[in-house]
Design a protein that fits this description.
This protein is of the alpha/beta class. The protein is built from 13 helices and eleven strands. The protein has a five-stranded mixed sheet with strand order 7-6-8-5-9, sandwiched between helices. Strands 2-1-3 form a three-stranded parallel sheet. Strands 10-4-11 form a three-stranded antiparallel sheet. The protein starts with a helix and ends in a 16-residue tail after the last helix.
Length: about 300
């Protein structure tokens, strides 16, 4: 009798597991990310079949500007996106009902030189004060790179209002810098490495050097309605990202190959660069750090309750 009960219980557990996987698999998920290494864990999870193993059908969508991701989420053209924390917090502050479903990448001293502000070869710009009156291209006004570059300017005594920022997509940075349309671009690998290896520009400053470690660079977000309507898919996504993050951090060459195929950037360019630290953990304290940075730049109309912005 005990054996029959045990078998019956096992059967119920198996049935429940299969039912959960089937429900998740019914949902096709498009994940939108920009052309950086921050979504390497999602790229690995697609290529290695980790998402499929966990019962969800995921494809990656390349997004030109990080600031376009919240609108893509609300229009359902992507179901999960990789916004920077600043873009995410500004979208929520503006009334969009988004939630963070997982972490993607975080800051680390070992990878701080994979982000920088790049000027044309031969430029006279050498210090923070040299950016006064200049036009600087950034991959999203209010996104991670632009916000932290502004922080660097302020820390070095420059009023960011004296710098003219324009949005420039990652794929066009090399051409825009070469044409002289901007005086500098705020960039990140793999695009930054492509610019410098081509001889178009040189890095003036790696402005993440002074930041604390383990602050989110990219997080995975969704509309609250979608996330709450698809709890099984969210659980499967989180499980997949955690597994893929281990691979990214232990096998960077494999991560570079996956990013190359996603972004269409040559492995020759990617081979010499560092991959962002994959970090699926996202805490209220880490998000609160971003709120403080943005408050100092008057980017938020009100103080968000970060505990309510991370999907439990």
């Amino acid at each position: 009798m005990r054996t029959l009960i045990t078998l019956a219980g096992a059967g119920l557990l198996l049935s429940a597991a299969l039912s959960t996987a089937a429900m998740a698999a019914d949902t096709a998920i498009s994940v939108g990310c920009t052309a950086t290494t921050d979504c390497a864990n999602a790229a690995i999870a697609v290529e290695d079949g980790i998402f499929k193993k966990n019962g969800i059908d995921v494809q990656l969508t390349l997004i030109g500007l990080n600031s376009n991701i919240p609108a893509a989420l609300l229009s359902n053209s992507v179901q999960i996106g990789g916004p920077t924390p600043s873009v995410f917090l500004q979208a929520v502050d503006g009334g969009l009902d988004l939630v963070a479903v997982d972490g993607a990448s975080s800051t680390a001293k070992s990878t701080s030189d994979s982000v920088g502000v790049v000027v044309p070869a031969g430029s006279s710009i050498k210090t923070a004060k040299d950016f006064i009156g200049k036009k600087v291209g950034a991959p999203g006004i209010g996104a991670f790179l632009q916000v932290l570059f502004v922080k660097w300017l302020m820390d070095n005594g420059v009023d960011p209002k004296q710098v003219n920022f324009v949005e420039v997509t990652f794929p066009t940075m090399n051409d825009v810098l070469k044409s002289g349309a901007v005086d500098a671009v705020v960039s990140a690998d793999p695009i930054m490495s492509r610019i410098t290896s081509s001889g178009t520009g040189t890095v003036v400053a790696h402005f993440l050097d002074s930041l604390p470690e383990k602050r989110p660079q990219i997080l995975y977000a969704a509309s609250r309605d979608w996330a709450e309507a698809h709890p099984d898919a969210v659980t499967a996504f989180r499980k997949s990202i955690e597994e893929a993050s281990t691979i990214v951090n232990s096998q960077p060459d494999k991560a570079k190959a996956a990013i190359s195929r996603f972004t269409k950037i040559s492995l020759d360019v990617l081979s010499s660069m560092k991959v962002s630290i994959a970090d699926p953990k996202l805490t209220s304290e880490e998000l609160e750090w971003w709120v403080d940075v943005m408050d100092k730049q008057n980017m938020l109309q009100s103080k968000p309750d970060v505990d309510k912005l991370i999907l439990k």
